[in-house]
Every structure is written in C-alpha cells, then in structure tokens.
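To fix ideas, we now present one chain and its tokenised fold:
***
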Amino acid sequence: MSEPDPERRLADAHERYEAACEAVEAVGEGDLRRLERAREDLAELFSRYEGRATGTGDFKGFIEFQSALDDLVSSLPEDLPHREVFEAVEDGFDKRRLNEADFERARELLGPVDDDVERLTERAAAREDLREARRAVESRIAALDEEIAEYDRLLALNEVDLDAPVADLRVPIEGYNEAVEAAFSGYLSRASTREVVAFLDRTEWFPLVETPDLPADLRAYIARADAGTESVPKLLEYADYSRSKLDHYVEDADALKRAVATQRTALERIDATPFRLAWPPRPADELRYQLRELRAVVPRFAPEETVARLREVRTLTRDPDYERLRRAAEARERLGAHERERLESGALAADRKRASERIERLRDALERYASTIAP
C-alpha cells in the first residue's frame, strides 16, 4: 500500500482538528473538564464496589457504595451539564439489592455524558494526528531536499568530458592496488601477529591510513602468549582447531579459544584495504596528502617496486589534466546508461524542477496550517 500524500494528510488532519475544537467549544472546555472529572470519579466508584455491592454477600459493601454514590452526586455543581443523568443513575441504584444488570443500565444512562467527554478525547487524538501529519510533511521536504542535492550532483556532471581517457588514471591506480594487496598478503604470511599489531599501532600517527583496532583482550593475549609469534593466518587456523588438537600446538588451548576464536572477525579485518587507493580517485590535494602518509607506511611491508607505483600516482596528481580525468572517472562510475540518457535528454533537470515545486507546495501547506497546529 502506497504512503498517503503528506499534503492531503495534513489538510485532512487540520479539518479533523478544527471540527474537534468546534465540538469542544460548543459545550465549553470548562464544563467538559468538570464533567470528565465527575465521570472519572463515578467510574472509579463502580470499579471499587461493583463486585462487592452486588448480590447478597457483602452488605457492608452495599451500604458503603450507596453512601459514596450519594456523596458524589450531591457534591456535583448545580450547573454541571447532564447533572440529571447522574441523579438518574443514583435513582437506579435506590434498591434493596443490586446486581450486575443495574451497573450495565447505569452505564447506558451515562451514554450522553460519555459522548460529551469523548469530545476532549477526540480533540487530543486529532491534535496528535495533526502533529504527525506535520512531521510527515517535514520528513517529505527533507527527502526531497536530498533528492534535489543528488540531482544537482548529477546535473553538474553534464559538463564533464565523459570521453576523457580515464585509463590514464585507472591503470596506475589499479596497478598499485594489486601490488599492495600482494605485498600485504605476503607480509601477513611471514610476520608474527605480534609484529603486525606493533605495525598497526604505528599507523595511528597517520589518520588517512585507517587500520582496524583490535580488542584489548585480544591484544593482551597476542603480547603475552607464545602463539603471538605465529602469523595472523596461522592464528586464524588455530582458532578452527578442536581443543584436543590445539593442545599439540599451543600451551593453553582454552586461552587461545577465548582470545582468538571468539574474536576472529577482528583478526580477519586486518587486510590491505587501508593501503589501497579509492576509485574514482580523490581530488588532487586530498590524494597527495594520502599518498604522503602511504609512502611513510607502505615501505614497512612492501618492496620498492610497490613504493615506486605510489610515486607514479603522485606524479599524476601534478598533471594539468588530472582533475578533468578524475571528474570523468567519477561521472562514469555514477552515471549508468539510463542516467546518462536522462541527463542528455533533460529528464533529470525536469525531475529536479518538479521536486523543487513539490517542496514549495509542502512548505506553503505548513505555513497555511501553522496557526492551528497546537504546540
């Protein structure tokens, strides 16, 4: 089922709230509040005594109920709306013996009172409905704002040279990424886990190289246990062993199971991702900062050939054509064949215009009904 139109929902909620307010005003809020309190007092009295005052089992309860009912009705203001209904209810209980049917008849007599008190309940519900309708309109405006921002980003690509030779950027970046993946995989296979953790600690000085954090208890185990001298792949392999098999490889199988097997995901997150370059690439200035940090980190585990590929990418950021090629790469990633066709045909611009007009109508609706939306 599709969502109701927010503007229509707001108009309907406003109409319902206006009608509910008029219904309250027709009687008077003060009178309705007094009537509501009287009805609540009577309901509380029924709840307390209905089980005791009926039948022949509790004469004391019967007397107490008759007395409490008389006190309640006699204390009602003379000008209370429907006071005669409360008097009729009291008359209906003026009997030597009461049963459940007497209470049912009393509730039927109180129908007009309940109908009027319901005016307050209906107004409160209508007020909340109006608030929710307003929130729905505001939420729709926010969603349309996001749509328009996306349209603007796509429309800005209309000026991009989509036929630019982006391979001039892709080939060096992909070449580096493949090289650093292989280098880091080799490093994980030959280095101890303890050494890898120390290396990750040193990368904290380089905020653009976002390596994963390891849980404190896992780090503590790696630092103290002999198994910390094993490689990360070997530790993960140990984690899959049964305790009886693991006893042949480590001193404390239970300790490894607690520290590694329960948190293997943390070790599995240690990969080359932090050292890779994104595609499409970042703007030249941002990429140069990232490359500067990578050139300080990557040589710790990668051969000179991999570092040379980093220098090659850095040279590209100085090329006058870099930004043109980067924007073309970004456009190709973001624009599929369908989006490209809509961009060229003007359909995207038309959609943006419709979204903007829709926002204006919704804002007008909020303004139009602002005075009747209760705080």
